[in-house]
Write the structure tokens for this entry.
Amino acid sequence: MRRKLRHLRRAEELWAVAARAQADAATEVRAAAVELKKSGISLRDLGELLGVSFQRAGQLTKQRS
């Protein structure tokens, strides 16, 4: 039983680490989108680069973290 609980605790720790990493990655994508937009890249090209629609690219450049 203790071994199972240990695995569950470790899984919870890893989920927390993964959630933080995902949030950090999203912050970096938004920062990159803003920088690229400021450099003059079109929203369509930005969307293509990020793998999202140009509408989503526009949203990313306007979001505040």
